[in-house]
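Side project, low priority. Logging it here so it doesn't get lost.
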Amino acid sequence: MATEEIADTLPAINAALVRDLVDTQFPQWAALPLELLDPAGSDHVIHRLGEELSVRLPRHAGAIGQARKESEWLPRLAPRLPLAVPVPVAVGQPGFGYPWPWAVSRWLDGEVATVGALADSSAAAVELAGFLTALQQFAPRPDLVEGSRDGLTGRPLADRDRATRTAIARVGDTFDTTATTALWDAALNAPAWDRPPVWFHGDFHTGNLLTVGGRLSAVIDFGELGIGDPARDLTIAFTLMSADSRAAFRAALDVDDATWTRGRGWALATGLNAYTSYAATHPRIAAQTTRQITAALIG
C-alpha cells in the first residue's frame, strides 16, 4: 500500500496501452502474451509478459520514480541480500498518452505472504530480521547521505503529524482516540536515530513479501527505498507477526526502545492513512489495517 497522497487525475491504463508501449519500445517482446495481475496494488498496474517478465506502469505521480530507482540500486543491493528482489530489465518511456516512465523486470514466482501462514512463525520473523540487517549493513555512499539525491533521503516521521492527527480524529469511532494520540505523541517524542543513516526498504509490509511452498522467497516493491532511520521498516512487525514472533524479530534485529517506538509510530501512521483512504471500499484493506493499527497500539 502506498503511503503517499494519490493524485486526483490518474491515467487510463488498459491492456491495449501496455501492448502498444511494449511492442513499440521493445519489439523483441512483441510476440509475448500479456496477462493482467489482479489485484495489482495501489501504486502500479502489473502485467505478466510471457513466462519470465513483468511490466509495471505507475498508477499515480507518487510512484513514477520507482522504475529508475530500482534499475539503479537493486542490482547493487541484490548480491548482499538473503532473499530475492526484483531484477530490472528495462525502463520504458512515456507514450500513447501515458505520461511516465515504466518498468520491465524479471518475473518472480511466489504468492503474497499472508498472516494466516506466517504470523506465528518465529523462523520467518528471524529471516526478515536477517534481511533488514543485511540491507542496513550495505553502507550508503557519502554523497547520497549528505544530499537529497535520487529521492533517497528519508522523510522524518514528524512530516506525517498533521495527516496522522487528522486521521486519528476521523477514525475515533473505530479506534480509541486517547490510545492512538498517546502512541503518536510517544513516537514523535522518542529520541531520533543518532547513528549513521542506513538503507531502508520503506514500504516493508506483508503485501511486499512473496512465499514459495510456505517459505519466504522474495521482497518486492522498492519504490520507497531510501537512506535514513531504519524504524520505518519495523512496520512489518505489526502487519505480519503475532506477539511471540514479533518478540523474536525484535530480538534478532536488536532494536532499542526508541527505535521500536518510532517503528510503532510508522505502523500507526501508515495504517491510518491506508484505513482512511481505502477501508470504506476495500474490506480486505480494512481488515489488514485494523490489525496493523491494533498491533501497533499493543506494541
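Brief comment: DSSP finds eleven helices and ten strands in the chain.
Revisit when time allows.
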